[in-house]
Amino acid sequence: MDRLAVRQYVRRMRRSTFDPLEISNSPMWYVVRSMHNAVLEVRPLPVGVDLKRVFVAAMLEWIDAGWKLSEFSSRTGVFFCTWALNVGW
What we know:
Blueprint: H1 3-14, E1 28-33, E2 39-45, H2 51-64, E3 67-73, E4 78-83
Antiparallel strand pairs: 1-2, 3-4
């Protein structure tokens, strides 16, 4: 592959429009895992559900339950929480 072809390929890859939270007609699952990758919770989602809404609602549920949101990525549909021991400090 020549340099021009490689640059064009890289440019196309950077502009990828894949969105894991886009509405889909495929079966989807809500899965919660521990930091050691152990499955803590699994539930099927209805076909055609608004995955962005499910993602935001899940983050809010965990925050309301006393967890602290440490980071999230809508590009991958993942968020991380830590137990908020210092609440109110």
